[in-house]
Amino acid sequence: MKTKNILLVTAVFLAIISISSCKKENRTAPVQFLLTDKPALYDSVNVHIIGIKVQISQDTDAWIPINTKDSIYNLLDLQNGLSTLIAQDTIPAGVLQEVRFILGDGNKVVVNGISYPMDTPSAEESGLKVKIGRALNETLNTFTLDFDASLSVTEENGIYKLHPVIQLK
Q1: Can you tell me the distance from the alpha carbon of 166 to that of 86, in angstroms, rounded to the nearest whole number?
Q2: In 93-110, which positions are buried (b, 16+ CB within 10 angstroms) versus exposed (e)?
Q3: How far is residue 167's CA from residue 158's CA, in Å, rounded to a whole number?
Q4: In principle, which of 22, 45, 69, 136 could form an S-S bond with 75, CB 3.0–4.6 Å?
Q5: What is the pTM for the complete model shown?
């Protein structure tokens, strides 16, 4: 009888360990994304960010949407060490492979007081990707993304285009 009790206790103990080890597979990591900019020679560069998605190493086919405020940001307000929070969420733990910005249609550049719309080839549909490749911690993971307005805006025959150059800072 004593042997049966020991076996029963051992079986229950092993089941609890097994269940608790499975729960570790569902770990999450809080993330936040900040936006900053390098100086540029424009009156303003307004970028319309409507969403951010991330790709985690565990599932390279899936893009996970991040809680993002649909807003227009004047990049030139984010220079000289200033940044703004653009997205924050909790995602599965792992290696953050890439971040994808989805841009809206409110992208404009102001030059000498005149506002021009900026064409954003494919960024409104498929988004633009930034490679990260960093393991996530269980504590807050902050990523500052430097949107280089001076390299991102081009002009040809009076038509302005936005070809975003974004680097992890």
Answers
A1: 14
A2: bbebbbbbbbbbeebbbe
A3: 27
A4: 45
A5: 0.79
